[in-house]
Specification:
single chain, 348 residues, six-stranded parallel β-sheet, 29% strand
């Protein structure tokens, strides 16, 4: 590491809403760690939740959980990497010995750590370090488009939990970046008819350009009731799978009414901690509806990289705004006001 600088620029939060660009030492490498020079790091709704003190974040923190970069150094015991390798970072680290890890449910780890979110610094910095088992090589994707690998891996985990049967009909509500990833995975995995319902505008047009669904229902922003009624008329038996990916608890509460008897309702959006929904237990009981929660991912990066790096799942146009680290306030605002479909912080 002799040729590397001794310090780096980083975005650091002392507490919610209290951030600044600071100069800090480069990460110290543990055994098995790889040092990555960050090229791009995605910005998403989770970062806004972290900024506002929602979600599971711990402070102080260098956020950024969708990191793409280039290997510049590594510990002596690291194997399979060389300087210059382009890599995507899985932000999670698991203890391996708690109650849930011992049961093979590592995502529920009682000492779950996540770079840029919980307990470990992330990629909104010039350099970041990750254990070698959480780095995956990429070849074809641009640095900016590769920031979609982490959210897409969360969609892949959701797909694994849904386990669609061949010939399933699905309704996906919301056309944000991770929803567009989920839509494409569903089409590759047994769903024969996929409908996307989302507010009219740029995200819905992007969904069409990606060929993400079979049917598209642009929802009026002022009065979407007629479009929801039409969905029911066109699908009188409902859908085998309904994925709520907008993060609206009000929409989630109503989404159960579009689930076919024996179907599945997936809570896939990131909802405020204070959000509540009310469902009739008799409906869930009598219609045998399965309600699924899908949060983050573990071990989904290899398959996700295969899909995105090969071009089988399309990414063009999803990241539509990029910012420098010093423009963090603007990047955050682009997520808040929804002018960005997906944003990224870029270096160099």
């Amino acid at each position: 590491m002799a040729s590397l600088p001794k310090s780096m620029k980083a975005l650091r939060y002392e507490k919610p809403e209290d951030w600044s660009i600071v100069e800090v030492p480069l990460p110290t490498l543990r055994p098995g760690d790889v040092l990555v020079k960050v090229k791009a790091c995605g910005v998403c709704g989770t970062d806004l939740h972290i900024h506002e003190g929602e979600f599971i974040a711990e402070f102080p923190l260098i956020p950024g959980h969708e990191t793409i970069g280039e290997v510049v150094a590594f510990s002596d015991d690291v194997k399979g990497f060389k300087v210059g390798d382009r890599v995507a970072a899985d932000n999670s680290e698991l203890c391996g010995h708690c109650f849930y890890c011992r049961k093979g449910q590592e995502l529920l780890c009682e000492d779950f750590k996540a770079h840029g979110v919980l307990g470990l610094d992330g990629g909104f910095a010039e350099y970041a370090s990750y254990t070698q088992g959480r780095l995956f090589k990429i070849n074809n994707l641009s640095d900016v488009d590769a920031t979609l690998i982490e959210p897409a891996s969360c969609a892949m985990h959701g797909l694994e939990k849904i386990a669609p049967k061949p010939g399933s009909h699905a309704l996906l509500i919301g056309a944000g970046p991770t929803g567009l990833m989920m839509a494409q995975f569903l089409k590759h995995s047994g769903v024969s008819q996929l409908t996307i319902a989302a507010p009219e505008g740029s995200k819905m047009e992007l969904a069409k350009s990606l060929d993400a669904a079979d049917f598209y229902v642009p929802l009026s922003r002022s009065n979407p009731a007629p479009q929801w009624d039409q969905i029911k008329k066109d699908n009188p038996y409902g859908f085998d799978i309904v994925v709520e990916a907008s993060g609206s608890s009000k929409v989630l509460e109503d989404a159960i009414n579009y689930v076919r008897r024996g179907g599945k309702l997936v809570c896939y959006g990131v909802y405020p901690n204070s959000a509540r929904v009310s469902w009739a237990p008799s409906k869930i009981f009598g219609d045998e509806i399965t309600i699924i929660g899908s949060f983050s991912e573990t071990y989904m990066f290899p398959s996700t990289v295969d899909y995105l790096d090969s071009g089988k799942v399309k990414t063009k146009g999803i990241v539509n705004k990029t910012f420098k680290l010093e423009q963090w306030g603007e990047a955050l605002e682009s997520i808040r006001n929804k002018s960005a479909i997906k944003a990224a912080i870029v270096f160099d």
